[in-house]
Amino acid sequence: LQISGEAQELFSIRHGPVRAARILPAPQISAQKCDNFSEKRPLLGVCKSIGSSGTSPPYCCVDLYSLRTGEMVKSIQFKTPIYDLHCNKRILVVVLQEKIAAFDSCTFTKKFFVTSCYPCPGPNMNPIALGSRWLAYAENKLIRCHQSRGGACGDNIQSYTATVISAAKTIKTGLTMVGKVVTQLTGTLPSGATEEEILAHSNLRRSPLVPGIVTIIDTETVAEGQVLVSEDSDSDGIVAHFPAHEKPICCMAFNPSGMLLVTTDTLGHDFHVFQILTHPWSSSQSAVHHLYTLHRGETEAKVQDISFSHDCRWVVVSTLRGTSHVFPINPYGGQPCVRTHMSPRVVNRMSRFQKSAGLEEIEQELTSKQGGRCSPVPGLSSSPSGSPLHGKLNSQDTYNNFTNNNPGNPRLLPLPSLTVVLPLAQIKQPMTLGTITKRTGPYLFGAGCFSIKAPCKSKPAPQISPSKSVGGEFCVAAVFGSSRSWFANNSGLKREKDQSKQFVVESLYIISCYGSLVEHVLEPRPLSTAPKISDDTPLEMLTCPRASWTLVRTPQWNELQPPFNANHPLLLAADAVQYYQYLLAGLVPPGSPGPITRHESYDSLASDHSGQEDEEWLSQVEIVTHTGPHRRLWMGPQFQFKTIHPSGQTTVISSSSSVLQSHGPSDTPQPLLDFDTDDLDLNSLRIQPVRSEPVSMPGSPRPVSDRRGVSTVIDATS
């Protein structure tokens, strides 16, 4: 979709039924790893009913076509049908029934395979999520020795809504079970049940498989060959292994950074958002924080698509009924509110004032005194002093685990509290949008309603019946992107003028199986029923469809097949990406005129440096950490000031020093620091401020062992 709002068709081909197709991203290259197919890219991976060989059973081979030359560069055969293809810069993943096979993105040789996936009856027969480096899949059993800390915590939300939700769920599940038993007794099958579902249910009775378990593996460090999570296997390459749901997992997705994972089960009532905090040693040391439960509703629905905004503050989950649910989340957890979601940029978990004033700690103190349920520190409510902050100085450990995002180790307890979030908007796609003509421009909507200007040459809309939209199912997919309907709306205005009004959320594009693509504008705003608007006011959202493109093709249109000429947008994009990847890897891009003279652009990323360059570079860095005016950093309550005397006459001025109290009984104070008096000039200590040594850099000529004499003290509570 160009900036002007026109939709330009780039590539089209008729292959018969196609199950999956992906344009493969340019692979990551280095001096050791070069791309074997660089002249052929961009590549398209297709799984269609009749493979390249023609003899194999349907949907059993992946063909890789070059969009530059049009030839097929590789074909990978399988014995069983393929369900889906996923790809990133490192690997191409082929999803089969209860199996996953991964291939290197440079050579397309087999890297590893997984055979222990849990079968799912839903639209995704084998749900997986592929991030930039990690691969998550549904494991068919829980292995205790690999289990990570945390995971799904549905039962410990002690709030009224959660109790009501779980009660309603129990009733609903009971009713569904009764319905199934009745149909089994009468011998009739429900109309929605497919053969796979019936097979899956009969398998469940026989085998001791556990539903709802997720395993995340690191595609770089995992061993070649079969990946097996068992009691005997070591945890090489296993990042996390945890229970996510009680029912089988139906769909999952990573956010753009790859640290958050959203999972949904076959009921589709609640979706879980997990934060993955890894440990380099083993998956049992990793922590999985259950940050959010996104509550959709009490009716059953199958999830077909999950999409994140680029800043990870919005997640859209689409079900097979054609509805897309928009949820607000924060990458670090906590309740979404005006402060977090009404600014164009992501805000920190705590505002600057909260951080320096220590308000949150005082609040937590008070709630723990009143027996509040969210007190993360057990022993603090029985503080002997009246001051709420007095208990904080008792021991170092208590202080370290004082807040949920503690300055200590986030993988240790306590885990952050779980937040239940309801959708701010539910967007239903219209079944048909006007008539189909060969006009690529957008149809513009009136004030929030689906009024479409009739195009000039109108034909009757053909009855389209996509293979998947049988039985009331309606396939949609959603993605966030910058607005393309701007130009078509205000063709008279200048573009710069309109851009001054910065949108808080990107536009949401939803395409349906009928070929209609609709751009929706999302506008979050404070809750209109709130008495006064503050930072913590909850949100509501206005949505309106802005423009629509009809992208379905008629049989009379010509196909656009490669080979393409050099200024085709797909080839221009592929060339630009490849060029910069060569620069990042420190290599000379192919076709560039000789060695590049401006070598700083990629040399600074290479690993070979002399110490001279390093020091020179460091001295030119200028850092501004705050914009004024501010309360000075040392005015916060977490700082204390002490006077240091040389040993022999050690006295400590501050009576509430946590260093003393945590390292020994209060009646025998330990000396804070022993100075070697031979090395220390007492006069210089009193007159001049103590200067710390410069940080040792990798290339610095002076070894660390030479530095003597001056020691730096940092108080443990700061």
UniProtKB/TrEMBL annotation:
UniProt keyword annotation of Flavoprotein present: no
Keywords: Acetylation, Angiogenesis, Cytoplasm, Cytoskeleton, Isopeptide bond, Nucleus, Phosphoprotein, Transcription, Transcription regulation, Ubl conjugation
Keyword S-adenosyl-L-methionine appears in the UniProt entry: no
Coiled coil region boundaries: none
GO biological process: angiogenesis; autophagy; response to starvation
Family: Belongs to the BCAS3 family.
Compartments, record wording: Cytoplasm, Cytoskeleton; Nucleus; Preautophagosomal structure
Protein name (Swiss-Prot/TrEMBL): BCAS3 microtubule associated cell migration factor
